[in-house]
Amino acid sequence: MNVQVIQISPIPVAMLRHMGSYDGIGPVFESLVNWAQASGVPIQRTIGIYWDNPDYVPTNRLRSAACVEIPANYPIPETRGLPIHVENIPGGLYATTTFTGPYEDLAPVWTNFTNYIEGALRRTIKDNPPAFEVYVNDASTTPPSQLITELYMPVY
CB within 8 A of 58, min separation 6: which ones? Predict the structure, then answer.
Protein backbone atom coordinates (compact mmCIF):
# COMPACT_ATOMS: atom_id res chain seq x y z
CA MET A 1 0.00 0.00 0.00
CA ASN A 2 1.36 3.40 -0.98
CA VAL A 3 0.77 5.64 2.06
CA GLN A 4 2.30 9.02 2.82
CA VAL A 5 2.07 11.15 5.94
CA ILE A 6 1.64 14.81 5.05
CA GLN A 7 0.82 18.12 6.69
CA ILE A 8 -2.27 19.80 5.25
CA SER A 9 -3.72 23.27 5.68
CA PRO A 10 -7.33 23.79 6.79
CA ILE A 11 -9.80 23.19 3.96
CA PRO A 12 -12.82 25.55 3.81
CA VAL A 13 -15.96 23.66 2.82
CA ALA A 14 -19.69 24.12 2.43
CA MET A 15 -21.21 21.00 3.95
CA LEU A 16 -24.51 19.22 4.11
CA ARG A 17 -24.64 16.66 6.92
CA HIS A 18 -26.02 13.13 6.68
CA MET A 19 -27.03 10.60 9.33
CA GLY A 20 -27.29 6.93 8.44
CA SER A 21 -25.61 4.48 6.11
CA TYR A 22 -22.53 5.85 4.41
CA ASP A 23 -23.87 4.25 1.23
CA GLY A 24 -26.86 6.61 1.46
CA ILE A 25 -24.88 9.85 1.17
CA GLY A 26 -25.16 9.99 -2.65
CA PRO A 27 -28.42 12.01 -2.75
CA VAL A 28 -26.95 14.43 -0.18
CA PHE A 29 -24.01 15.07 -2.51
CA GLU A 30 -26.44 15.55 -5.38
CA SER A 31 -28.44 18.17 -3.44
CA LEU A 32 -25.28 20.00 -2.38
CA VAL A 33 -23.67 20.05 -5.83
CA ASN A 34 -26.95 21.09 -7.49
CA TRP A 35 -27.27 23.98 -5.02
CA ALA A 36 -23.63 25.03 -5.54
CA GLN A 37 -23.90 24.95 -9.32
CA ALA A 38 -27.24 26.78 -9.38
CA SER A 39 -25.86 29.41 -6.98
CA GLY A 40 -22.58 29.93 -8.83
CA VAL A 41 -20.49 28.64 -5.93
CA PRO A 42 -16.98 27.80 -7.21
CA ILE A 43 -16.39 24.14 -6.38
CA GLN A 44 -12.70 23.37 -6.01
CA ARG A 45 -13.02 19.73 -4.86
CA THR A 46 -15.77 17.39 -3.70
CA ILE A 47 -15.12 15.84 -0.28
CA GLY A 48 -16.87 13.35 1.98
CA ILE A 49 -16.33 13.53 5.74
CA TYR A 50 -16.88 10.41 7.87
CA TRP A 51 -16.90 10.74 11.67
CA ASP A 52 -17.71 7.20 12.76
CA ASN A 53 -16.28 3.71 12.28
CA PRO A 54 -19.09 1.51 10.90
CA ASP A 55 -17.52 -1.49 12.64
CA TYR A 56 -18.48 0.03 16.01
CA VAL A 57 -21.34 2.47 15.38
CA PRO A 58 -24.85 1.30 14.39
CA THR A 59 -25.70 2.17 10.78
CA ASN A 60 -28.54 4.52 11.73
CA ARG A 61 -26.13 6.58 13.89
CA LEU A 62 -23.28 7.00 11.38
CA ARG A 63 -22.41 10.67 10.90
CA SER A 64 -21.08 11.99 7.61
CA ALA A 65 -21.16 15.09 5.45
CA ALA A 66 -21.14 15.86 1.76
CA CYS A 67 -18.81 18.81 1.14
CA VAL A 68 -17.58 21.07 -1.60
CA GLU A 69 -14.31 22.90 -1.07
CA ILE A 70 -14.77 26.63 -1.53
CA PRO A 71 -12.37 29.58 -1.57
CA ALA A 72 -11.45 30.88 1.89
CA ASN A 73 -13.88 33.52 3.18
CA TYR A 74 -16.26 32.92 0.27
CA PRO A 75 -19.67 34.51 1.00
CA ILE A 76 -22.22 31.71 0.78
CA PRO A 77 -25.37 32.66 -1.12
CA GLU A 78 -28.93 31.80 -0.08
CA THR A 79 -29.10 28.10 0.80
CA ARG A 80 -32.66 27.62 -0.51
CA GLY A 81 -33.72 25.94 2.71
CA LEU A 82 -30.87 23.42 2.78
CA PRO A 83 -29.07 23.19 6.15
CA ILE A 84 -25.69 24.06 4.62
CA HIS A 85 -22.87 24.99 6.99
CA VAL A 86 -19.50 26.53 6.21
CA GLU A 87 -16.65 25.00 8.19
CA ASN A 88 -12.99 24.13 7.87
CA ILE A 89 -11.69 20.61 7.76
CA PRO A 90 -8.87 21.07 10.28
CA GLY A 91 -5.33 21.15 9.05
CA GLY A 92 -2.70 18.91 10.55
CA LEU A 93 -0.89 15.65 10.03
CA TYR A 94 -2.74 13.11 7.86
CA ALA A 95 -1.91 9.73 6.40
CA THR A 96 -3.10 9.57 2.80
CA THR A 97 -3.44 7.03 0.03
CA THR A 98 -5.23 6.86 -3.32
CA PHE A 99 -7.72 4.24 -4.50
CA THR A 100 -8.92 3.69 -8.06
CA GLY A 101 -12.19 1.82 -8.43
CA PRO A 102 -15.88 1.90 -7.49
CA TYR A 103 -16.99 3.62 -4.32
CA GLU A 104 -18.65 0.35 -3.25
CA ASP A 105 -15.17 -1.17 -2.87
CA LEU A 106 -13.87 1.48 -0.45
CA ALA A 107 -14.79 -0.23 2.86
CA PRO A 108 -12.02 -2.87 2.72
CA VAL A 109 -9.58 -0.24 1.46
CA TRP A 110 -10.28 1.83 4.57
CA THR A 111 -9.70 -1.25 6.75
CA ASN A 112 -6.37 -2.01 5.05
CA PHE A 113 -5.39 1.67 5.21
CA THR A 114 -6.13 1.83 8.94
CA ASN A 115 -4.22 -1.39 9.61
CA TYR A 116 -1.25 -0.11 7.60
CA ILE A 117 -1.19 3.21 9.51
CA GLU A 118 -1.24 1.49 12.89
CA GLY A 119 1.02 -1.42 11.89
CA ALA A 120 3.65 -0.56 9.28
CA LEU A 121 3.70 3.19 10.00
CA ARG A 122 3.34 2.78 13.79
CA ARG A 123 1.13 5.86 13.92
CA THR A 124 -1.82 6.56 16.18
CA ILE A 125 -5.07 7.58 14.53
CA LYS A 126 -6.67 10.70 16.03
CA ASP A 127 -10.32 10.62 17.10
CA ASN A 128 -10.73 14.18 15.89
CA PRO A 129 -10.66 15.63 13.23
CA PRO A 130 -12.56 13.08 11.16
CA ALA A 131 -11.31 11.03 8.24
CA PHE A 132 -12.29 12.25 4.80
CA GLU A 133 -12.27 11.35 1.13
CA VAL A 134 -11.53 13.59 -1.85
CA TYR A 135 -13.31 12.56 -5.03
CA VAL A 136 -10.87 13.39 -7.82
CA ASN A 137 -13.16 12.77 -10.78
CA ASP A 138 -16.89 13.05 -11.44
CA ALA A 139 -18.89 9.89 -10.71
CA SER A 140 -21.60 11.00 -13.14
CA THR A 141 -19.20 10.93 -16.11
CA THR A 142 -16.51 8.44 -15.03
CA PRO A 143 -16.86 4.65 -15.22
CA PRO A 144 -16.82 3.16 -11.69
CA SER A 145 -13.59 1.25 -12.40
CA GLN A 146 -11.83 4.58 -13.12
CA LEU A 147 -13.03 6.60 -10.12
CA ILE A 148 -10.13 8.05 -8.15
CA THR A 149 -10.56 8.62 -4.40
CA GLU A 150 -7.95 10.10 -2.07
CA LEU A 151 -8.30 8.88 1.53
CA TYR A 152 -7.13 11.01 4.49
CA MET A 153 -6.81 9.82 8.09
CA PRO A 154 -5.65 12.19 10.88
CA VAL A 155 -2.64 10.83 12.75
CA TYR A 156 -0.15 11.65 15.49
Answer: none
